[in-house]
Write a structure and sequence with these properties.
The protein is mainly alpha-helical and 201 residues long. It has 8 helices and 2 strands, in the order H-H-H-H-H-H-E-E-H-H. It is 37% helix and 5% strand.
């Protein structure tokens, strides 16, 4: 899912709707983490590259699955940095939750609708969706209870689709990967495709 979110952000940047080097607050004025100075310095690129200084170690909030994307972003007010902004790679899922919410603000579309119209449909990915509640034909997941396998329903957080949970098939993901390896295949310019596939840019 993160690659779809990053691609959508890149598309919006090419359309001039956002600046990858701009602070998140440029588009979400109330964006806040526990460190006020860092709140104003974290950029879109920092979130894209997991270099915002945020990490799971500094974020102990347990959000319910029905939390909205906005509620998830607002919960970061309790997140303390575990590295200085821009200095260290620290994988942080909710950073991509912020980006998916940003896509909604900048595009005026629901995240799932944007991904459908601008990525999935152009690639003919009809069996894929960024709205797991509409997915059909999913494999049944299982867990163990006293050694017995029992069916368990996968909980999907409403705020988390941009960081995980996009539903697809192996064939359609291969089509997506192939398109990206063909310099974006019209989804972005070859220059932006190169930027997307180059670490740290």
């Amino acid at each position: 899912s993160k690659s779809f979110t990053a691609l959508a952000v890149a598309q919006l940047a090419e359309q001039g709707k956002l600046d990858l080097n701009a602070a998140v607050r440029t588009y979400i004025p109330w964006f806040k983490v526990a460190d006020e100075d860092a709140s104003s310095r974290i950029t879109i690129n920092h979130l894209l590259h997991h270099t915002s200084g945020l990490s799971d170690a500094g974020y102990s909030v347990l959000l319910p699955n029905d939390a909205t994307p906005e509620q998830a972003v607002r919960s970061l007010a309790q997140a303390r940095l575990t590295a200085a902004v821009g200095t260290k790679h620290q994988y942080f899922n909710l950073g991509y939750g912020v980006l998916s919410y940003l896509i909604e603000i900048v595009s005026g579309e629901r995240y799932a609708d944007y991904v459908r119209a601008h990525i999935l449909d152009p690639l003919g990915m009809d069996a894929s969706t960024a709205d797991p509640s509409t997915a059909s034909g999913l494999a049944q997941g299982y867990s163990r209870l006293f050694g017995f396998a029992i069916p368990v329903r996968q909980g999907v957080p409403a705020y988390g689709v941009g960081e995980g949970y996009i539903v697809s098939t192996a064939e359609e993901m291969a089509r997506y990967a192939s398109a990206m390896l063909r310099e974006g295949d019209g989804l972005v310019t070859p220059e932006m495709a190169g930027r997307i596939l180059t670490p740290g840019l």
